[in-house]
Design brief:
Distance between the termini: 70 Å
Mean pLDDT: 82
Shape: globular
Structural class: mainly alpha
Radius of gyration: 22 Å
Number of strands: 2
Number of domains: 2
Helix content: 55-70%
Order of helices and strands: HHEEHHHHHH
Largest sheet: 2 strands, antiparallel
C-alpha cells in the first residue's frame, strides 16, 4: 500500500515539475463539441413549450431517470470548464479558416488565447458558476429555476464566443417579407430555397405558413 502512495506522490511531483501540463489529447474545439455543447444542449432542450396544431406541448423532466440523466450532463459541463483552461491546449486538431467577416480562424483564436489567457479563464469561471446554479436547480427539481439558469448559461457562452470567436461578426439584415411555406417535403425544399436567398432559417420556420 505504501508503495502505491509513494508512486502517486512521485507522479504529482513530476507533473508539477513540468508545469502541470500533462499532454492533453482533445483540442478546445473537441472539448466544446463533445462535452460543453453536448451537455448544454441537453440542459437547454430539457424544458420548453412547443405550439402545434394539436395544442401546446410542455416539455420538462418528469421521472427520476430524466432528472438523473440531466444531472449527468450538468456534471460533465461543470468538469469541462476546468479542462478548457489548461494552458497550452490547442484550439483545433485541424486548423479551420474564418467563417466570414469579423469571425476568427483557429489560428487567430489561438493567438487570442495566448494573449488573453486570464480573460478566457474568467469566462470559464463564469460558465462554471452558472453551471453550478443549473445543477442546484436540477437537484431541487425546480423547473422554473432550470429554465432561468439555463438562459443565464446561454448568455455566458455567448459572451465568451463574442470575445474569442466572432467579436466583429457581420450579420446580414433579414429580408422584410419572409416566404410562405407549405407542409411536407415541398415545405422543406422551400426552407432550403429561402435560406439560399438570405432568409435566416429560424425566421423561415417561425414565420412561414
Amino acid at each position: 500500500m505504501w508503495r502505491h502512495w509513494v508512486a502517486g506522490w512521485l507522479t504529482i511531483v513530476v507533473i508539477a515539475g513540468c508545469g502541470g501540463h500533462v499532454g492533453d489529447v482533445a483540442s478546445l474545439q473537441e472539448l466544446m463539441r463533445d462535452q460543453v455543447d453536448a451537455s448544454a444542449d441537453a440542459i437547454w432542450d430539457a424544458v420548453g413549450t412547443t405550439t402545434t396544431r394539436d395544442g401546446i406541448v410542455e416539455k420538462q423532466p418528469r421521472s427520476d431517470a430524466d432528472w438523473k440523466a440531466l444531472r449527468r450532463h450538468a456534471v460533465v459541463l461543470l468538469e469541462a470548464t476546468h479542462l478548457l483552461v489548461i494552458p497550452g491546449r490547442r484550439v483545433a486538431a485541424k486548423e479551420f479558416p474564418s467563417d466570414g467577416p469579423g469571425v476568427f480562424s483557429s489560428q487567430e483564436i489561438q493567438a487570442e488565447l495566448g494573449r488573453r489567457q486570464r480573460e478566457f479563464a474568467g469566462f470559464a469561471q463564469g460558465l462554471r458558476a452558472s453551471g453550478r446554479r443549473v445543477l442546484a436547480a436540477i437537484d431541487s427539481r425546480d423547473v422554473d429555476a432550470l429554465l432561468k439558469e439555463g438562459a443565464v448559461m446561454d448568455d455566458a457562452c455567448e459572451a465568451c464566443h463574442r470575445s474569442f470567436w466572432y467579436p466583429h461578426e457581420v450579420v446580414p439584415a433579414l429580408p422584410a417579407e419572409p416566404p410562405r411555406l407549405q407542409d411536407g417535403p415541398a415545405g422543406a425544399g422551400a426552407i432550403r430555397a429561402a435560406v439560399g436567398r438570405g432568409f435566416h432559417p429560424a425566421c423561415v420556420v417561425r414565420c412561414g405558413r
